[in-house]
Amino acid sequence: MTGRGRAARSADPTEAPEDVVPAGRGGEGQISRGRPSLPPAPSLARHSSHIETGRWHPTSLGCRSPDPRGRRRAHPSSRHMQIVEHDSFIVVGIPVRATWNELWQAVPTAWAQLRSRIGEIAPRADDVLLDVSLEQDGGKYLQLVGARVSKAERVPEGMMAVEVPAQRYIHHRHTGSLPAIAEAFGAMYAWAEEQAVAAGSFKVDSGYPIEDGESADALPHDLFVGVLPETDWREVRV
After folding, report:
1. Which is nearest to 71 in space by CA: 225, 200, 194, 201?
2. What is the pTM of this model?
3. pLDDT in tens, 157-177
4. From CA 148, how far away is CA 121, in angstroms rounded?
């Protein structure tokens, strides 16, 4: 296993609220159903075709939802947000390294490749796909669309395996439409500010179906935002 992760972020970590909940052992906070994301998106309406495919949506980039008067909008589900402690997990999938403008074409292409090669990823931990926003470096974003595995026995050609260490997250289970995920991520950052929690840029959006024709709205999406200080992910080489 070689360490290749995000550069350490300098931030003042703030104490989390007292109601820290363990994740990955049952309950709403677990990622085992399959679970990530990317940067602030331009107009969602302008790119609705990407949203409707269920393959990718700009909120995976963690955009926020300010109102016209410059204040963040309250989200009706904010009361369901919480800090969770999540065990480490491994994701194997198709990496995408691209500029913001290139992502609109590159990420949907990666989703199509992933679904056509899903049988090569084993042993899968579940049948739910996830989108992980790993890092931004020099104007390029590194995104990973893939599936969780119970262990990394092999990494198929052209794919990447990443181990995400145990760490704390803001968690929210989204049960609405894909376009509404953008607002949900924005609300998670707004909630973090209200609770004096230092939110990072590492994000997970889990809840995409394996079958291309199945609606991505059919499953709940577990959304996670890392709490600072974030622990660097590691690339797994087999």
Report:
1. 194
2. 0.71
3. 999 999 999 999 999 999 988
4. 9
